[in-house]
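Bench notes, bay 3.
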Amino acid sequence: MFILVDCDHFYCSCERLFDPTLRNVPVVALSNSDGCVVSRCPIAKSKDTARGGLGIKMGAPFFEIKHLMKSHGLRVVSSNYVLYQEISNRVMRLLATYTPRQSIYSIDECWLDAGGMNTCYETLGRKIQADVKKQIGIGVGVGFGTTKTLAKAANRAAKTYRKTGGVVGPLDDVRRDRLLSLMPVEDVWGVGRKLSAQMNLMGIKTALDLQQFDLKTLRRSFNVNVEKTALELSGVSCFRFEESVDPKQTIASTRSFGERVTTLEGLREAVATYVSRACVKLRSEGQLASCLQVFIQTSRFDDHPYSRTAICGLEVPSADTRDFVAAALAGLQRIYVPGYRYAKAGIVLSQFCSPHSYQSDLFAPTPRRNADALMNVIDQVNARYGRGSLRLALEPPVAQWAMKRDYLSASFTTDFNQLKSVKCQ
């Protein structure tokens, strides 16, 4: 028995935890540089204008909906990823207590393995929902299924149909097929718009159509994963429960600038900052990397756009931020051309290996002494006192080119100086 727990409009819910004025009003959260909508509360996305719905679509550019702030009282927040990750950690720690195994799927979703548990599943789902609301303060939808795909479908129904109370499943065959008949095939886990367009031409309109379609034709027309998805919709489990996430093959750190950068020094600061962030992720994965790509680009809408990438290899795999910063700055020097107004820069780490599984080169330079201990201390200090507490001299404390975040909320849970204050009278 699989359980999928999914937080309700997660970014908006996190913001409402610490700002009561956001409750009962339409709220959306914006992407990097306040570009487009990445999270919507129910009021903001509802198309029922008679009840105050605004019908805002996911991914809608901010400039297209900005007028709603004045005309309809829309509240807007910039994405506060530090806050969201901290709330996510709290939710995941709580959810891990209900079943023997947990697999975190995304920042606001996780799988729970309830196989073999002697319990009433619906009662368990209501308890999970109530406990998360009471202890964390946000709502969740809970879906049960004998396969992952059915659990995903049940979770979607829990969040779509109010009468379910946010908990759906496990379903008998009749109720299961009824649910699948109401579910567009593009909403099936693993299908999406591109595959669904091809399926529609074959007469596959709903999830039930996919379940009942000829399996050999699905494999021949698409691939084995589509065939497995159809089997899962019938109750045949094809996708295993994975407790551990596969190690990343690449780590990227890229941002669009809040203001155009025209100098090499500004680009050096940005690239060094991005390298530092990527190396923290690399060390958290317990990996080493031996290749780095650095790129810079102007806006593609400029009269004469410019974009270049440099690939830099390390002689010895490393997780030392200093090694990658030196390589990135050398690559940046090769591709930088003065006279352009740069809109974005970034780096990508690749060619990973385990610290214990690579063959060292007899003629390679000797690694820095105590490099691992130094990086570990830096990571621990920054984790405790906030990112940037310890940094390389090239990384600016306040970047002029930082991405635009005009509606950013405070770091209520991770910065002592931004804690909420209470006045007693």
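Next record in the batch:
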Amino acid sequence: MKTIKDSVHDHIDVQGIARALLDTPALQRLRRISQLGTVSLVYPSANHTRFEHSLGVYHLADRALAHLPARQQRAKRVRAAAILHDVGHAPFSHNVEELLARRTGTYHDEVHDRLDSGEVGDVLREYDVDPAEVADLVAGEGRYGQLVSGELDVDRMDYLVRDAHHTGVPYGTIDHSRLVRELTFRDNRLVLGEGNVQTAESLLIARALMNPTVYRHHVARISKSMLRRGTEALIDEGEIDAEAVSEMDDPELLVALRNCEPAAIYARRLDDRELFKRAVWAELEDVPEHVVDADHETVRELEGQIARKASVPEEAVILDVPERPSMPESSSRVVVNGEVRPLAEQSPLVEALRAAQHSQGRLGVYAPQTRTEAVGPAAVDVLGIDVDDVLVTEVRGYPATLSEFTGEE
């Protein structure tokens, strides 16, 4: 057994199969992948990693298994899945995941190949555990997969508390001890036991408050968009493919970006925190449906149209169209008067939080600070946005030359 001091859960005892997995290269790589990607450009102390989060998820899963009816072999698989659940993450966590998934067809929780090969596969087989079964649990499949990835998973319980702790934002605080203790199964569904409607609501509220404050903070979205654009330029250059990028860690990706001419401008700006600014910041209800639902190719075409209308380089325009708001936690289930009921049917808070989340949705158009005055009106025109409730940034007093972005004199 190994005891590790953790900033959130105090002391974590790692033993058995999890202890054997702890020092594998796949898990140690997570020490070099930031939990919140570029959010540290907003909250400087948000430098925690996927490694410590994985330890926290293992710890909570281990505590849940103390009272859930799991035989020894099944519990072993769940503990392995909990500590390995993030080994499929690309550098900077979710920031470039969609980009890489378009090229590779694989998301971070699809880890069958990663768990079957290398030292991880050797350790799992040494403990008589099938890597495929562990990978299924990571993907949320089966009865106990819900504990690792589901509406009431221990992944969510750890990252909300951990992200709140490291950002200094108090909104992610939840009673994770009670949540873990009250988990039970009804008809193979993971639910919260009797008397826990407010416990389930606390998880919902925490996520609803952390979204605009941390996860979707406008500076985090701008820096994420710049990192994604640079990574796309790196892959399009042809020397490094998406599969290779997905296996990098954060420092490796930054070095690759700095050494690739089309991507280097984004890397330099991220290094120096010389970020693009908002040229347009529009509520989704003011944006035409075809723009909100645009695929990646359409977004790139719209960026080109905006750049041409504004007479700026295409590289100086980023259109950030967020996914439509969702609230998976609202489908969690609680026992009320002996019956299992969806939280959305039991709690009047759900509809209010859904409305609040919908109102927080924003489309962004970003550009270098000297370009926002030209890009903002051009974007409003190209996208057909209702301008009454739109922030169109006007920045005056900057030289109108290409040198600011392209280096040309």
